[in-house]
Amino acid sequence: MRKLAVYSLLGCLSLLASACNSDTDVESGETEVEAPPFPEGQGQAPNASAVYPAGPYGINPGSTVSNFKFVGFPTPDQATDSAFNVSLSDFYNPTGKDVFPEGSPYGAGEAKPKVLWVIVSAVWCGPCNQEAAETLPGKYTEYQPKGVEFLLNLADGPNPGVPAEFKHLKNWVKKYETRFPAVVDPSYKLSALFQQNAFPANMLIDTRTMEIVESVAGAPDNSFYSKLDALIAE
Q1: Fold of 3-233
Q2: Which of the two residues, 129 and 43, has the higher pLDDT score?
Q3: Which residue has the higher pLDDT, 9 or 196?
Q4: Which of 157, 177, 183, 234 shows its CA 20 to 30 Å from the CA of 163?
């Protein structure tokens, strides 16, 4: 079972140039928050009612990601009054030319993305806030017209190891004027997909196959962007 260790916020803020890592040992008297167990080599069980690639499902690049389901805002720049179910199957685009169906909160008839960029963040994490303020807005403007959708997954709230609540998500998307889907993950479903417990974490998913193409702890590097550009060009 993977564990998210609670440690000093000040220690994390010294890592602004890289990532907030929660793999350090827990000091005496502190507690640990355990993420839920996962089947060997898998994450959450897929939603059987959705159209989605068949398993087996894995957690490493080259594996098909399970159909995780969250609660949040499909279009936070337009409405945050009501929460919606947001599933990875929403973005499944097997032909590369699929569109969102009638009644979709993403916009009926709008083209589905070719690539899904998943960002896992925490309210308390300095680098996550820095990424949200300085990196993601420009990258979304650059890549969204090329067929890339972003999905923010807010894992922790203001305290390390304590899941983000819906109110934290509302504050986050308002503060950073988030223009892409954003969800909370109170049961830490996505924690199994990353080799290290670090925030922020970034992942690329090819929506034509729902295959994990890249997964990195910390800010995206040159390799991440090279793989993203290659997916767009396919």
Answers
A1: Glutaredoxin (3.40.30)
A2: 129
A3: 196
A4: 177
Sorted by where each begins, the domain ranges of the chain are 3-233
Residue 215 has which token pair? 């997964």
Residue 102, pLDDT > 90, answer no
Q: Report the SS3 class of residue 167.
A: helix
**CB–CB of 205/211 below 8 Å?**
yes
For residue 20, the surrounding DSSP H or E stretch is strand 20-21
Q: Which helix (H) or strand (E) holds 71?
A: strand 69-73
CA torsion, ordered 66, 41, 189, 127, to nearest 10 deg: -110
* Pairing, β 148-156 against β 198-199: unpaired
DSSP E strands in 144-221: the ranges are 148-156, 182-184, 198-199, 201-206, 211-217
Question: Which single residue is written with the structure tokens 């017209």?
Answer: 145
Query: Secondary structure of 105-144 in the HEC alphabet?
Result: CCCCCCECCCEEEEEEEECCCHHHHHHHHHHHHHHHHHHH
